[in-house]
Amino acid sequence: MKKRIKSVIVGLAAITAFALVSCSKSDGNTIKIGGVAPLSGQYTEYGLECKKGIDLAFEEINAAGGINGQQFEFICEDDEGVPAKAVNAYKKLTTQNGVRLMIGSLTSGVTIAITQLAQANKVVQIAPAATAVAVTDAGNYIFRTCYTDPFQGKVGGKFAAENLGAKTAAILYDIGNDYSVGLMENFVEEYESLGGKVIARESYNGGDKDFNAQLTKIKAANPDVVYLPDYYATVALIAKQLRAQGIDVPIVGADGWDGLVGLLGSEGGDEVLNGYYSNHYASDSTESSVQNFVKAFWEKYNEAPNSFAALGYDSAYMLRDAIVRAGSTDPEKVRDALEKTDGSYVTGHLTFDEHHNPVKSAVMIKLVKENGSLSTVYEATVDVNN
Prior knowledge:
This protein has 386 residues and is of the alpha/beta class. It is built from eleven helices and 16 strands. The chain is globular, with a radius of gyration of 20 Å.
């Protein structure tokens, strides 16, 4: 999850990294998993939930006997959402722990901070939730479990035009955030290709708290829908001011919204009602794989899993499956096995394209109130691959 990076800065970049894997050199019966995630800081909700999904997956795998008797051991470092700290964690895990396989990261910038290192060192890196196109540009050792920003930006545009029937749209986005800009650009491209018209496009800078000037212009434009491509904390602020101005049309966003329930669930959250966002899975799906995962997650954590938990869970199982097919934890053999992935997971049936990006659909989630608390329900499946 997530900034759309336009160029790769070697050694650094911007915002989350996540898990690493290799056979322990000290114990042949252990497969060590090293992790780097935002367990504190601005994106804590993402990191903690993704880690829970990975923990659950490896707990299940170990209970089933592991791989030929080898058990997985997960070691997770906190990067605080800071690229430099992710780089330090990567170096510690690869040098001190001998990590050669990775599951990481969540948001795109911090993932990109280590992709060049992983590629140069021939370390397999799987990014659960980093959606920027540039994440997999570093080379053939880099994979992702989530779809890309251009894909979900277009999903949002198609949903607004076809499912909501919106003829006009306004957009409010972070001009300095590549994730936000990329989603905005692709939303506009798809929405206008389907006959929609963008009648207001306003921007702000990261860290801004007052959006009333931009929202006044949006209200005057009188759009049928408002697109808000940003992360959940900022979206919560904007939505409150948007509703306070009397803008009551649907609001649409992307997977960065997945955290609103955790943030607002105990405080009301009425401002985000009539809101929809593209996501990687729906916890209320009737698919048996989804329901089994949700049930196991509830039993372990006493809460519903969000998409970051599901993506972490799938990343762990996808890596396990590749190791089994490869018959080895050798990075080159695991990389080759990952390229041949063709299976059904919690977040959908997954294969990889030539850039190691998954080919799959997205779901649209609706924010609702259930028993007085903010919750989510499945709204639609949207595909723009064809």
